[in-house]
Amino acid sequence: MSDYVDELLHVSDAGDPTTGDVAIQNYTINFGPQHPAAHGVLRLVMELDGEIVERVDPHVGLLHRGTEKLIEYKTYVQALPYFDRLDYCSPMCMEHSWVLAVEKLLDLEVPIRAQYLRVFFAELTRISNHMLNLGSHVMDVGAMTPNLWLFEIREDCMNFFERVSGARMHANYFRPGGVHQDAPLKLLADIGDWLDTRLPRLFDDAISLVADNRIFKQRNVDIATVSRDDAIKWGFSGPMIRGSGIAWDLRKSQPYDVYAKMDFDVPVGTRGDCYDRFMVRVEEVRQSARIMKQCLAE
User: What are the two backbone dihedrals, phi and then psi, of residue 179, each rounded to the nearest 5 degrees?
Assistant: First the structure.
């Protein structure tokens, strides 16, 4: 029985023979790719000391599908649906990157209304993305209720996607030179009402449950801290680099479509920990709503 326990605890033979103390090694587990919380996106070989992750050996590339090779045999428009699937959490943002590249190659001028529509739905996509991230985050650290409320918001976003494109996730809405079709005026009015009423009510209620919660802070503050220098060295981007205190946002530094006309702030963290990255995304949701309201006003 003792041999079995020693094997479970990874007890090594090395120790102090004078005191009888033994050296206990850290525990190694696999996180993913077939893990309920990993979604098949990667495999992490994790070395744990209790609940502290001491070391990680990442294995990436499990979602590589040869998209670049596949679209070599497609037209510019036929290639577009592949980009929805590059990040199913942010489909229209992925479409945006493709159409911008094509327009630059072809020197196309995009009508101003189409630019506003693309920015509008890109920000709606960003809100939907952050609902998934924030909801999964709070659930992974032990909270359940906020995730359900945040997914109500995500459901609203997907209903709006369906009304403008016919699809809830893989919208295939953007086009080189503009968008597939104009947005129905009733839809834009409904989204405007949603931005003023339902979104802030649900979102603020959900975040208020965790933002100042003692247990939530204990599980996030000073956890997985990344310094400014390390964030740059490791090639961080998006909320990851902004969480480390660097106000890097392509919508500000290299604005495209009508982002140069938008008035919004770039939230940043101070410690570069899990809590900062969480709160950066929280504020980014509010800034996205701010951008969308400006688009509607135009």
Answer: -135, 170
Which class is 67-297 in CATH?
mainly alpha
For 99-144, write each residue's pLDDT tens digit. 999 999 999 999 999 999 999 999 999 999 999 999 999 998 999 9
The encoded tokens of residue 64 equal 């590589």
Residue by residue, DSSP assigns 30-75 as EE-SS-TTTTTS-EEEEEEETTEEEEEEEE--TT---HHHHGGGS-
* pLDDT, tens only, 252-274: 999 999 999 999 999 999 999 99
Q: Where are the domains of the chain?
A: 2-59, 67-297
Residues 6+ apart with CB under 8 A from 109: none
Phi and psi for 226 in degrees, rounded to 5? -125, 120
157, 124 in Cβ contact below 8 A? yes
CA angle 232, 221, 279 (to 5 degrees): 70
Which residue, 129, 102, 117, is CA-closest to 258? 117
Q: pTM of the full predicted structure?
A: 0.87
